[in-house]
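Subject: Predicted fold for Small integral membrane protein 1 (Vel blood group), 76 residues

User T.R. writes:
Posting the sequence so we have a shared reference for the thread.
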Amino acid sequence: MQPQDIGVQYSRWNDSSRDEVSVNTSTAEVSGSKRIYTKLCTGKIGIAVKVIGGNILFWTVFVIGYVTGYYVHKCK
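User M.O. replies:
I've generated the structure tokens; pasting them so everyone works from the same file.
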């Protein structure tokens, strides 16, 4: 197993009146799914992906409803 370079340090008794929490992470060990999420779900690309996904979902539901309604209300 590889050693992890992730550490959390909490320092409450500092000279300042605020508590401090520092998190150290290694950028070399970022998972593939996290990179894909960051790329596709944030920023301008994220907005475009959500708009395109919403349109696909809308038209899918619309077509399913249209076909279902056609067969339900079809005159015999």
